[in-house]
Amino acid sequence: MNFFIRLNMSSILYALFPVACIELMVNVYRISRVTGWGLELVNALTLGFFICGVLFSCFGFPKLIRHWLGGRKASFFSLVLWIPYFLILIRILASWIPITNPADKPNPVTGLIALAALGLYPFFLAVLHGFGTAVTAKNENTN
After folding, report:
1. Global pTM value
2. Phi and psi at residue 106, in whole multiples of 5°?
3. How far is CA 91 from CA 85, 95, 105, 126, in A?
4. What are the pLDDT digits (tens) for 14-26?
5. Strand boundaries in the chain, DSSP class E
6. Whole-number Å distance between alpha carbons of 46 and 28
7. What is the three-state SS of 19-54?
8. How far apart are the C-alpha atoms of 78 and 64, rounded to whole Å?
């Protein structure tokens, strides 16, 4: 039961990164309007968040898999489990923070960028899972 809870918690963490990235991409105009910052600054901060998130993911997710999930092969279920959590989080954010100002609607291309990123994200997670489980398997074989 403990592994099941840890697996679901790691899946929620996996879903938080794309949710935050997509929400930042979609709400650029709203962030600019509410804070009074220019679009260039908001876009630069969003890009900085993306880069920091990717770097954190590259180093943090394999450590999470090794230490929290024990590097077990069953941790690969989280490659599928993050999708329902992603949909739930997007639905919650869309209902809590609706777009009321028509000027805040995102560009149509933003959806294509989000779809491309979501299409590549499972492969990114699979590579990171491979690193997390391979290092644990290598350590077990040397002992």
Report:
1. 0.85
2. -75, 165
3. 10, 6, 17, 25
4. 999 999 999 999 9
5. none
6. 8
7. HHHHHHHHCHHHHHHHHCCCHHHHHHHHHHHHHHHH
8. 12
